[in-house]
Amino acid sequence: MSLAIRLQSASSDFQKLQASMAETVDVRQKLEAQLSENELVKKELANVTPENIVYKQIGSVLVKQDLTDAKSTVETRLEFIKSEIKRIEVQLKEIEGKQEKKKQEVS
Fold this sequence. Notes:
A two-stranded antiparallel ribbon has the order 1-2. The protein has a single domain (3-106), classed as Helix Hairpins, CATH 1.10.287.370. The chain is rod-shaped and about 75 Å long. The protein has helices at 3-46, 67-106, and strands at residues 54-58, 61-65. Strand 1 (54-58) and strand 2 form a beta hairpin. 79% of the residues lie in helices and 9% in strands. The chain is mainly alpha-helical. Helix 1 (3-46) packs antiparallel against helix 2 (67-106). Belongs to the prefoldin subunit beta family.
């Protein structure tokens, strides 16, 4: 294989890795926003007393929900989001490693 073809192939692979990195960063930012929102909900639910009524939105309808169920749901959601962020972090590190290898290959 000629040098020009190998360079073109490596350059193309590098561009694909950059696009993958951008997509992964976008996913991470969305997860961070969800994490922030859910932490705010958790904080608000901590201020709710048992006498207060908690509603959950299902479609366009508000349905009465038990306070302990609401807290449990938010806590579960937080755990899920945190695990997804960890998974994305690993993915980002892998992509960065691959990018570094391709960058050296192109050089």
